[in-house]
Amino acid sequence: MLGMCYKQEVEKRRIPFQNDSDTQAKIAKAAKWLCGDYKVGLLLYGTIGSGKTTLAKAICNLIGILYNSAISSDRKAVYRVSALALAKNVADDPAYFNKLKNQDLLFIDDIGTEPASVKSWGNEYSPVTELIYARYDRQLFTIISSNLKDEDFGDRYGERIADRLEEMFERLHYQNKSYRK
Length: 181
Prior knowledge:
The chain has a single domain, classed as Rossmann fold, CATH 3.40.50. It has eight helices and seven strands. It has helices at residues 2-12, 21-35, 52-67, 83-90, 94-102, 127-138, 150-157, 159-168; strands at 41-46, 79-82, 105-111, 118-120, 123-125, 141-146, 169-174. The strands form two sheets. The protein has a five-stranded parallel sheet. Helix 5 packs parallel to helix 6 (127-138). It is globular and about 50 Å long. The protein starts with a helix and ends in a 7-residue tail after the last strand.
């Protein structure tokens, strides 16, 4: 089912789905993570255009389908936000930030593209860092995509966050070239 959701995400952009071995392996690992007793987070990271966001969206869509079907009385969806939108809205709308902290299911796209800190009315925020701390403390389902390399997480967010990412997130590393070319 996850493979079908992935294919649909690709075809939505009017490009042909490439069912190569790397894509199949990533889908299989993500499906195993979804169905198993693993860490509460999934970190998709690596090269630009390699399918990280597409896989995250496919997971979100699959969860939406399963939770909003006739077999489930619970209605759930994965709340999606880009790191840039997070940084833009966090300082001006504390209720929005609290909403993100408390979402049962959250997907943060493209961490590492946002400003490291945001200032508002004399206060300085580090939105991604603060959000990861909050979600780590509550062990909430979180998917993150990023173009950062392993060593970049510590450089960008500090060793404390890098350590929490290690504990909280299963990792899928992307090394293949961009599908956009």
